[in-house]
Amino acid sequence: MDWMIEVEGLVKTFGHLTAVDGVSFNVPKGQVLGFLGPNGAGKSTTMKMITGFMTPTAGSVRVAGHDVDDQPIAAKAQIGYLPEGAPAYPDMTPIGFLNFVADVRRLDAATRRRRLDYVIANVHLETVLEQPIETLSKGFKRRVGLAQAILHDPPVLVLDEPTDGLDPNQKHEVRSLIADMAKEKAIIISTHILEEVDAVCSRAMIIANGRIVADGTPAELERQSPFHNAVLINCQDGGVAEALGAMANVSKVEEMPDGYYRAYPKNGVSIVAEVADLIKQRNWSTSRLSVEPPRLDDVFRSITRSRPEPGQAVEPGTGQGEAV
Amino acid sequence: MMATTWAVFRRELKGYFNTPLAYIFIVIFLFLTGIFTFYLGSFFLRGQADLKPFFNFHPWLYLFLVPAIAMRLWAEERKSGSIELLLTLPLSVWSTVVGKFLAAWVFICIALGLTFPMWLTVSYLGQPDHGVIVASYLGSMLMAGGYLAIGACISAATKNQVVAFVVSVVVCFLFTVSGAPIVLDFFAAWAPQALLDAVASFSFLTHFNAIQNGVIDLRDLIYFVSLILLWLFANLIIVDLKKAD
């Protein structure tokens, strides 16, 4: 496989603090890798080293075959980078800024016109092109940063929290834009928003304390959820907990207020059919029967913090949300 | 390399005129040169058609005004985070260092160029030695470049513009006064002539005064050019080292 990004044994220490502690991974073309992790986990530091802004304490990064340390200019030419917080030059206008980036990236006149038209239309900057960047809203600033990153149509994109500060519509647009580019490029995005991982990422990686603690497709990670394949029922009849607990594939039953019960399967097998049979057989009046939706939240929390107690109050069936 | 330096240069130079900074600087510069020349320099009383009183004050004017321009060169980028963007673009650090320096230098030269009415005035009043005036302008430009290179280098070491300004003024001050009589007299009493010359030769004043007399000596040119290159090289090293921070 042709790797577009090769990260090997990356370490970064600041004094006594080890921000990144031996991170290795590869990203091929066509993959969108989502970096997840609590604040301060080392996501941004890793991105700064991939893009050549920071020199690693140890380890190496190759981008499209170019070592970032030995051939920085060749490597950087292959990367589009949206740094954390989307910094730009506050006195410049978006069009002036994009033209500067095009100058530095040496786009010829025809390419420049075509790409400017493309990014301006796709990140919707038409209305603010001539306004100083410092007067723009947070969402527009972020989009200017994104436009700058994709301007030269790079094979590698590194986006640090690309949808931070955007409203839900804008988030959706940016995700569609990323999804559109996904086939052609190797993309790394970092995010706090776990639904984003489901929406755009083909691979998710959880980083905590500078180490990779989980790595797989979003579906694979979801399987690690303590609620994976757990079944939620609402039933006012008596003896439900005992009957569920007696089932062969049920490891544990949790009784919650208002007649809610949650049954956890053994080894993550699907138990919803058996539970449905049981309900029919006992003729319980059930107002709800559902499989807990797969939630990266729970995986994220259980991996980056202590494992959640199964008795912990998790609102039944709230779907996806933002990790804290 | 040339193309990216040019891109950085253009962005920086335009940046000065996007904000009131440029206009304020130019007005203050012209105002102060006027005060120094006509009031402190007794331009009219001297009864001589030359620009000596005008150029004599340039080192002291630059001592404060050039660090004020230089302080933002890198410190502001570091503070706003735009440096992360700049240094992840495919350009060499050297072309960034040079582009930024040249833009600020050209800007200062524009301000200096706007003092041309002085030249007109003195030409109207008498027959000045135009060769001396051209040499003095050239010397003044070179000296401004020296102050600027020092200031740019120090600006790269911090993200606090005030710190950059104060430290630059102090360093520039040392490079200025090492040739002033007050320092040289102190050494003259006891130090051998060689040491005296060495101290004096580090000074902007010594070299600027030599050029101001109308003699463009290669040694003075080499002094300013090598001083600028040395500080720009230090600037490059600091930017590079900061990547490991």
What's the order of the H and E elements of chain B? HHHHHHHHHHHHHH
Distance between the termini of chain A: 36 Å
Query: In what range is the share of β-strand residues of chain A?
Result: 25-35%
Question: Could you report the average pLDDT of chain A, rounded to the nearest whole number?
Answer: 87
H and E order of chain A: EEEHEEHEHHHEHEHEEHEHEEHEH
Strand order of the largest sheet of chain A: 6-7-8-3-9-10
Fraction in beta strands of chain B: under 5%
The percent range for helix content of chain A is: 25-40%
Structural class of chain B: mainly alpha
The most extensive interface between chains reads:
A-B, 33 and 25 residues
Average pLDDT level of chain B: 89
SSE topology:
The complex is a heterodimer of chains A (324) and B (245).
Chain A: E1 3-14, E2 17-28, E3 32-36, H1 43-50, E4 58-63, E5 66-67, H2 72-77, E6 79-82, H3 94-104, H4 109-122, H5 138-150, E7 156-160, H6 168-181, E8 186-190, H7 194-200, E9 203-208, E10 211-216, H8 218-222, E11 231-235, H9 240-245, E12 250-256, E13 260-265, H10 272-282, E14 286-291, H11 296-304
Parallel strand pairs in A: 3-8, 3-9, 6-7, 7-8
Antiparallel strand pairs in A: 1-2, 1-4, 4-5, 9-10, 11-13, 11-14, 12-13
Chain B: H1 2-18, H2 20-40, H3 52-56, H4 58-70, H5 72-80, H6 82-87, H7 93-113, H8 116-125, H9 130-155, H10 161-177, H11 181-188, H12 193-201, H13 204-212, H14 218-242
Helix pairs in contact in B: 1-7, 2-4, 2-7, 4-9, 4-10, 7-9, 7-14, 9-10, 9-13, 9-14, 13-14
Q: How would you describe this structure to a colleague?
A:
The complex is a heterodimer of chains A (324) and B (245). With 324 residues, chain A is an alpha/beta fold. Chain A has helices at 43-50, 72-77, 94-104, 109-122, 138-150, 168-181, 194-200, 218-222, 240-245, 272-282, 296-304, and strands spanning 3-14, 17-28, 32-36, 58-63, 66-67, 79-82, 156-160, 186-190, 203-208, 211-216, 231-235, 250-256, 260-265, 286-291. Chain A starts with a strand and ends in a 20-residue tail after the last helix. The relative contact order of chain A is 0.13. Mean pLDDT of chain A is 87; it is low at 306-324. The longest helix of chain B is centred in the middle third of the chain and has 26 residues, at 130-155. Helices cover 80% and strands 0% of the residues of chain B. By secondary structure, chain B is mainly α. The model of chain B has no long low-confidence stretch (mean pLDDT 89).
